[in-house]
């Protein structure tokens, strides 16, 4: 009989701007050993780091920097250590955000701008389907009709990163539509991110989190 697979440890980074308890429960549901903390050593040592985010882009960036989260994310990714961002935790991974005419620098892991979503009804609040690439690892085991829970007024409306080296695998980008297409998720080696809330997306969200845990 084969040995049991060791439980993966995940830190939900607590920098004051995220649904940390919902994320904790969702990750525990799929078998992770979860801790909510902003402790530097624990965030660095965990198998996976989950960065939630709710509220304004600028406030989240300020809170993240005060908790040294920007440095932790950068250090983990430079070593190929998995990080996942959710909602505004995804948005701050882009180059910049513009809210009410004010531009704020993001973490610049990907080029692109988080801008107001152009739609008849904003915020985009509720369940929506997504259009994932056929080779997506995040959406493995999910059918095209799977729905995820969104709450946001801002989004990345275009994907700007071009990969011209055939030896480098391009990020897998998933789209959704609310008034216009926008980036709903990104898989880029050790860095995953979703605009929707997998921790509030029922069985579909649990499957996506399971898929992430399997990469740790």
Automatic annotation (TrEMBL):
Coiled coil: none annotated. Its EC number is 4.3.2.10, 3.5.1.2. Gene3D superfamilies: 3.40.50.880. Pathway: Amino-acid biosynthesis; L-histidine biosynthesis; L-histidine from 5-phospho-alpha-D-ribose 1-diphosphate: step 5/9. Pfam families: GATase (PF00117). The active site is at residues 87, 197, 199. Keywords: Amino-acid biosynthesis, Cytoplasm, Glutamine amidotransferase, Histidine biosynthesis, Hydrolase, Lyase. GO terms for cellular component: cytoplasm. Its main location: cytoplasm. One of its GO terms (biological process) is L-histidine biosynthetic process. It comes from the Bacteria. Signal peptide: none annotated. It catalyses: 5-[(5-phospho-1-deoxy-D-ribulos-1-ylimino)methylamino]-1-(5-phospho-beta-D-ribosyl)imidazole-4-carboxamide + L-glutamine = D-erythro-1-(imidazol-4-yl)glycerol 3-phosphate + 5-amino-1-(5-phospho-beta-D-ribosyl)imidazole-4-carboxamide + L-glutamate + H(+); L-glutamine + H2O = L-glutamate + NH4(+). Residues 11-211 form the Glutamine amidotransferase domain. It is found in: Cytoplasm. InterPro entries: Class_I_gatase-like, GATASE, Imidazole-glycPsynth_HisH. GO terms for molecular function: glutaminase activity; imidazoleglycerol-phosphate synthase activity; lyase activity. Heterodimer of HisH and HisF. IGPS catalyzes the conversion of PRFAR and glutamine to IGP, AICAR and glutamate. The HisH subunit catalyzes the hydrolysis of glutamine to glutamate and ammonia as part of the synthesis of IGP and AICAR. The resulting ammonia molecule is channeled to the active site of HisF. HAMAP family: HisH. This is Imidazole glycerol phosphate synthase subunit HisH. It comes from Streptomyces roseus.
């Amino acid at each position: 009989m084969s040995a049991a697979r060791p439980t993966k440890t995940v830190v939900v980074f607590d920098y004051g701007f995220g649904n940390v308890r919902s994320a904790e429960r969702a990750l525990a549901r799929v078998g992770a050993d979860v801790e909510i903390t902003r402790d530097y050593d624990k965030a660095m040592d965990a198998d996976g780091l989950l960065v939630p985010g709710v509220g304004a882009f600028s406030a989240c960036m300020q809170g993240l920097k005060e908790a040294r989260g920007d440095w932790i994310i950068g250090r983990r990714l430079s070593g190929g250590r998995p990080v996942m961002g959710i909602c505004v935790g995804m948005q701050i991974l882009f180059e910049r955000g513009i809210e009410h005419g004010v531009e704020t620098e993001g973490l610049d892991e990907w080029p692109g701008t988080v801008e107001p979503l152009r739609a008849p009804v904003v915020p985009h609040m509720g369940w929506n389907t997504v259009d994932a690439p056929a080779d997506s690892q995040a959406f493995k085991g999910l059918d095209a009709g799977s729905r995820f829970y969104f709450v946001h007024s801002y989004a990345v409306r275009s994907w700007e990163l071009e990969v011209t080296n055939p030896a480098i695998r391009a990020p897998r980008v998933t789209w959704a539509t609310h008034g216009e297409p926008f980036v709903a998720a990104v898989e880029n080696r050790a860095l995953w991110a979703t605009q929707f809330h997998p921790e509030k997306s029922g069985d579909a969200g649990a499957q996506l989190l399971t898929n992430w845990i399997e990469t740790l």
